[in-house]
Write a structure and sequence with these properties.
The chain has one domain. The protein contains 5 helices and 14 strands. Strands 12-10-9-7-14 form a 5-stranded mixed β-sheet, covered by helices on one side.
Length: about 290
């Protein structure tokens, strides 16, 4: 389901934090994985966004909670079994609400439309389901990311779940990898960065692939080697390489003959974490730009 914003919706810049898009390089999408098992129904919504803050619609509103409730009303799925995941893509609207997104022209309308589109996408996923088995595996995807602080912590593993129909006609992939999608951040074109490039390649090249969802890993200090190049050729190269790793892993899993039944459970807890204290002026001057 396409969720591309109008150009009047700002993205998250450096300083000032809000700038406005002037065009669309590639559209944004929301993809849905719907699972049904002995313990009920479960939904994972994967959106090409930087995040989904509850505060987007202002005081007295809770956007993410309202979105889950809307999906639940339309589907009967409990809110605790509805997972909303964004790929943390920086060349998308400021849905982290660093500054009040709702004040931008057309933003509230787009957010309400986003809610409706996700509800519709969940409905479509439920209607188009198939009996599936699960294949799972992991591989190392090295040489494309770095720890931006120069520390040794670096997760280069790609984890892949393949939900495959018994006749092998349909497949839905769920890939997990940790790396900030910031190759083309802070530029004026809407883009899903390397995540979108990877998904388009996998969905095009893998026969029977209905959708490839992406779960962002713990990417806190992990950036692409090319970092903030703002060059879409780097986006395509990174996306193609990651897609190649995922396709290779899918082929290995398909040839292994090992498959498992699809079993799912859901658990949900809301945790409020306190913000760190802001540094004083002297400490701020010492901070890297």
């Amino acid at each position: 389901m396409e969720i591309t914003p109008p150009l009047s919706v700002p993205y998250l810049g450096f300083s000032p934090r809000h700038s406005f898009f002037t065009g669309i390089h590639d559209p944004l999408h929301a993809r849905v994985l719907h699972l049904t098992g002995p313990e009920g129904e479960f939904v994972l919504v994967n959106a090409d966004l930087i995040g989904l803050a509850d505060t987007l619609l202002g005081e007295g509103r809770q956007f993410a909670s309202e979105l889950r409730e809307a999906v639940g009303r339309a589907s009967g799925i409990p809110a605790a079994a509805i997972l909303l995941a964004s790929s943390h893509i920086h060349s998308t609207p400021d849905t982290l609400d660093f500054r009040p997104l709702r004040e931008a022209q057309g933003a509230v309308g787009w957010l309400e439309d986003l809610k409706d589109k996700i509800v519709s996408a969940v409905g479509a996923a439920r209607r188009n389901g198939f009996e599936a088995r699960l294949r799972a595996g992991a591989a190392v995807f090295s040489g494309f990311s770095k720890n931006r602080r120069g520390e040794p912590c670096l997760d280069e593993e790609v984890t892949l779940l393949v939900f495959e129909s018994f006749d092998r006609v349909h497949k839905v992939l769920l890939a997990n990898y940790a790396c900030h999608p910031v190759i083309v951040q802070v530029q004026e074109l809407v883009s899903a960065d390397y995540v979108g490039a990877m998904q388009r390649t996998v969905e095009r090249e893998l026969e029977g692939c209905d959708a490839c969802l992406f779960l962002q890993g713990a990417c806190g200090d992990i950036n692409p080697l090319v970092d903030d190049s703002r060059d879409f050729r780097d986006v395509d190269a990174f996306g193609a390489a990651l897609a190649g790793s995922i396709l290779d892993l899918e082929r290995i899993l398909a040839e292994s003959g090992t498959a498992e039944p699809v079993l799912a459970r859901a658990a949900s807890e809301t945790i409020h974490l306190p913000s760190r204290a802001l540094p004083d002026a002297r400490e701020s001057e010492k901070t890297d730009p």
